[in-house]
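Fold this sequence, please.
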Amino acid sequence: MTENEELRVLDMLAKADAGEHRIEAVSGDFRLRWGNYVFKVHTDEGVWVVVVFNDCNSWDYIDTVTDPSGQSWEWADYNGAPSDPLLILIDDDHIISRAVADWAPKNHARWGPGE
């Protein structure tokens, strides 16, 4: 993920959270102990898919984001992350910022139940 891609994803998330984009809960249930919750975010650019890992009935981290063109980014593997808390190791050659993975909504009600 490039810095521009990261900023694009963070911008989409912030605008969705602020009510500028429509959020549609597709699957998942925050009443469950853990699992993935899938959202579609409808923007002028098209539909984004955001997969959030729910842990202990609450938003834990963003697992995957897919943009309207089908480009997808995954942050699921926290194992083996370098000691810098702002970075995450994807594989031996790729280290990216955890800013997207660690993003959480300010307006949980827009994203459905759970906190």
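The chain has one helix and seven strands. The CA atoms of residues 23 and 111 lie 7 Å apart.
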